[in-house]
Amino acid sequence: MFFNSIAFAIFLPIVFFLYWFVFNKTKSTQNALLIIVSYYFYSCWDWRFLFLLVFSTFLDYYTGIQIEKGKSEKSRKFWFWLSILVNLGFLGIFKYYNFFAASFSELLNSVGLKTSPVLLNVILPVGISFYTFHGLSYVIDIYYKRIKAEYNFIDYSLFVSYFPLLVAGPIERATHLLPQVKVKREFDFEKAKEGFCQLVWGLFKKVVIADNCAIYANNIFDNYASMDSFSLILGAVYFAFQIYGDFSGYSDIALGVSKLFGIDLLRNFNYPYFSRDIAEFWRRWHISLSSWFRDYLYIPLGGSKGSKLMQIRNVFIIFLVSGFWHGANWTYIVWGLIHATYFLVLLLLKKNRNNFGKIRISWNVSSAKTIGSILVTFAITCFSWIFFRSLNIYMALDYIKRIVSFNFTLDSFKEHVSFIIIIILPYLILLEWNNRNKECPLFDRFSKIKVVITILFILLFGQFDIQSKFIYFQF
Amino acid sequence: MKVFLKYIIQIIAVTLVFAFGIQYFSDNGFKQLKNSRYNDWANILNGKINSEIIINGSSRGFVGYNPVIIGDKLNLSCFNLSFNAGSYNLQQSKFDIYLKNNKTPKVIIQNIDLAYFVKSTKLPDEEQFYPFIYNKSIDSLTTKFDNRFSLFRTIPLLKYNQKIKMLEEGVIANFSNPFEKNVKTIQGYCPQNRIFKVDYHNLSRFPNLTFKAENKHEILLLHDMINFYTWRLHKDAKIIFVWMPEYKLRLTKSFDLKRESIIDELNLIQKKDKNFLFIDMAYDEMSNHTQYYYDTFHLNEVGSNLFSEKVSMKINEFLN
């Protein structure tokens, strides 16, 4: 069941009604309903993976308690590593086994040892990377005594399998979500209104921005060998908007839906394409994953402390892992490495913490510089997306080679720029730019007008014929 | 909660007002637009046609029969009801809708060709129905082919989804005609002011035969179509089947083998039924001249005018 499906449009109001009018007596009834509907929601993809979800939930629930109860450090360590290894083991088998087997076999073949890899014929369970990371953060936090273990299984299950975030995040923290799950939610008009606005905005980003840009991006990337330089640049830009609309759209819908149930989720995107440098980009893009890696990998490794060599190592590790998290393909790894290189330049020049403040624009030279740095950051981000979108490294390199051949034709502009794109992209950029200090551009001033216009845009420009997946479901 | 529900209702209400408003404005523009297929549908549904001669067919009928010439020559009112890209089943449905709202014609001119016998499973040129989706007859026709039309009825603007150019044309149509040549219609006929270009994709679709085709299915369909008209028309009404001139590239041995039994059957029916006429112009002199066609299957405006004159003369002989 996708967020942009008719099924979800029926599912959501029913659950909303049951939640606030039938199961609203106590926190337990609210949680019980949310668990049932979350499992139903997940089973709509493939009910067999429910077992994996339940097992993963039970494992972290049980090991969390055992770690807390553990009298000796040895016992605590045992349960901790059991949880880490089993969680990562599942992720490894389902997501990475085939990649490693094939890569290892290729390596052996390249040195003259003829082998054929033994590959597993398994489907990647939807959202496994997300709920595994939920569980991991929970267990790590208990081990380092940052939080207490949760003894109520229903509450813990809801933390892992809460349907708005179950399949594509945001990656929640126990410190943020569990306290909300443990109290009865009272209806809050302002929160629900904001949730509704965010849901509409997310839907707009998905079905209008992402799915329209996808048509052009797919066409250009699929036929890149016959495209001129201008088309190839457009292809990268379209993909940048596609992936942004797709993933941030999903996150907005998730956050919006959750607000309708009185639960706040972690903000996942903060207008990343308005970033003034790549460090800021990573503070604004997929925030829940970036902060997860920062807290559970980068800082434990030493972060930006220590020798220059250590800092460089840490940056490369975190970006490499981040790339690899997205999928078992060399293209994601190179994408991570490119971002590591971008970031490293800032780190070495000690400019990685330059742009923390709000973006202020007025008619002066400094504003022109700000706009320039936003455009440069966007351009280098688009460059890295070429690797992310390409099927393999060779394709990405060939794509770039063709861009720098600098052959342009006017026809390509006509072919790859449509009337719809000319309307929807400026609408997205203007609305987000003007509301860049708010979580949702549709909320607050002129909210109703903006919501109505956006719904009309969804009706007119949305892609409904294709049952398009959200890109991040595959991760 | 009440305040929230009120908020949601307000948003939905305002959205609906705007969406239905824009949709109505565009639909209305199309309906009022003279010399358009939309206006033709509006006239059909409002019972404003009532012609004595009705021409029926698919795209070949749509672009090939000039009802002004045919009507003038036969001294009868004439309307071209052809369904662009629609096969026999859609032509029948359209005729039924016509009959429901208009007087029964005295003469039917039915265009046939080899494509006529292939049943339409999809609704071609679906945009022509957009302004009329709330009409019961149109609704039952469209929903039979495509369930989306049920959604179009309930969700405003959805039918114009990704069709901004069309929505814009509909709005402009309230003030002026946004259509250029080759789209405008004259009494249902759509003249094509185009020069010849070989349509290889259409040519390659034709089967390569080495023996005479039995055409059991096609012959059955012929009888069905004749019965369809006989049951609906008055006793003395005339039914005329016409095979238009085919461009010479189509006139192959395979073509002959494929249609031979169909022609035999039509000639046989003609012998038995005094109200039935079959005119075979497939090998007419026009077949040899590119200036009469815009592809191997369709006549252009010059060709359709000449053909309409020629066919009118033959029909005139039959009627008198």
Automatic annotation (TrEMBL), chain A:
Entries under InterPro entries matching the protein: Ac/AlaTfrase_AlgI/DltB, AlgI, MB_O-acyltransferase, MBOAT_fam
Membrane-protein topology: Multi-pass membrane protein
Single GO term (MF): acyltransferase activity
Keywords from the named record: Acyltransferase, Cell membrane, Membrane, Transferase, Transmembrane, Transmembrane helix
Chain ranges passing through the membrane: 6-23, 32-58, 78-97, 118-144, 332-349, 370-388, 416-434, 446-464
Biological process annotations from GO: alginic acid biosynthetic process
Subcellular location: Cell membrane
GO cellular component, one term: plasma membrane
Domain of life the protein comes from: Bacteria
Family: Belongs to the membrane-bound acyltransferase family.
Name of the molecule in the record: Membrane-bound O-acyltransferase family protein
Organism expressing this protein natively: Flavobacterium cheongpyeongense
